[in-house]
């Protein structure tokens, strides 16, 4: 009986524990799938997609020199971590007719980690302190 209670208690503690925190180093690895279209960091240039320096807090469709779809430019979205999480889950569902054909990151922890990685970069591509 005591053993069963201990096992049940342990399971409840594990189930109630929060998921691991955002990990920018893991996010850098997970960002590799994004690198096919996006650059970030010092010297980043427009590729298939816009540069992602300073993306967190930026209004959607506003990176200078990139030709966005009308859907993205007119979305009214500001890329907060919460909006990025929704978008990275399924870009087409959040901004129908966006040019971004990426199917999304379905793993919640990977999305959190990628967002933590993105949050490190200022508009000029330097890492924030």
What features would you describe in this structure?
Residues 1-18 have low confidence and may be disordered. The chain has one domain (20-119): Orthogonal Bundle (Cytochrome Bc1 Complex, Chain D, domain 2). It is globular and about 35 Å long. The chain is mainly alpha-helical and 129 residues long. It is 40% helix and 0% strand.
Provide key terms for this protein.
single chain; 129 residues; mainly alpha; Cytochrome Bc1 Complex, Chain D, domain 2; disordered N terminus
CATH superfamily: Cytochrome c-like domain
**Structure class:** mainly alpha
Q: Regions with pLDDT < 50 over 5+ consecutive residues? A: 1-18
The gyration radius over C-alpha positions equals: 18 Å
Shape: globular
Supply the CATH class.
Mainly Alpha
Helix/strand order:
HHHHHH
Q: Classify the beta-strand content into a percent band.
A: under 5%
Distance between the termini: 53 Å
Task: Count the beta strands.
Answer: 0
Overall number of structural domains: 1
CATH architectural grouping: Orthogonal Bundle
Briefly summarize what is shown:
This protein has 129 residues and is an all-alpha fold.
